[in-house]
Design brief:
By secondary structure, the protein is of the alpha+beta class. Helix content is about 45%, strand content about 35%.
């Protein structure tokens, strides 16, 4: 007796039905899934972009505050309040300084506040130090 070998593919193909492709229900389910996932992903990218812009501008604002603070101390103008603006790249940072008494009579706290905008929202970065008014 002889056995005839047939492959699994030839058995299913012999009935005339080609079973490659997706059904309508599978296609609609995939489209519904994509319709939900894409807006969520775009929103996530938007939030990440905003966070990156805030972090970048805050870093620059802190550098501006540090530079202004050091300049005020070096020139000895820390007893009076001051203000101004600094252009960094294509962004403008407004700064304001103030000096208030701190714990002991000869010590003063000097604070520089730098204001900047990110996507229409105003934000503030502050740098402070303590200076001794008894020192020349």
């Amino acid at each position: 007796m002889r056995c005839r070998r047939t492959s699994l593919r030839s058995r299913f193909a012999s009935d005339g039905a080609d079973r490659r492709g997706f059904t309508l229900a599978e296609t609609l389910a995939a489209l519904a899934f994509v319709a939900v996932v894409i807006p969520v992903a775009v929103h996530g990218v938007r939030i990440a972009n905003l966070a990156a812009q805030v972090a970048d501008r805050q870093l620059v604002a802190m550098r501006v505050a540090d530079r202004v603070l050091n300049e005020i101390i070096a020139t000895g103008r820390w007893n009076t309040a001051g203000s101004g603006s600094v252009q960094e790249g294509r962004h403008t940072f407004a700064w304001r300084s103030q000096s208030v008494s701190w714990q002991r009579a000869t010590l003063r706290e000097l604070t520089v506040s730098v204001t900047f905008n990110v996507q229409g929202v105003e934000r503030v970065a502050r740098a402070s130090t303590v200076v001794d008014s008894a020192q020349p």
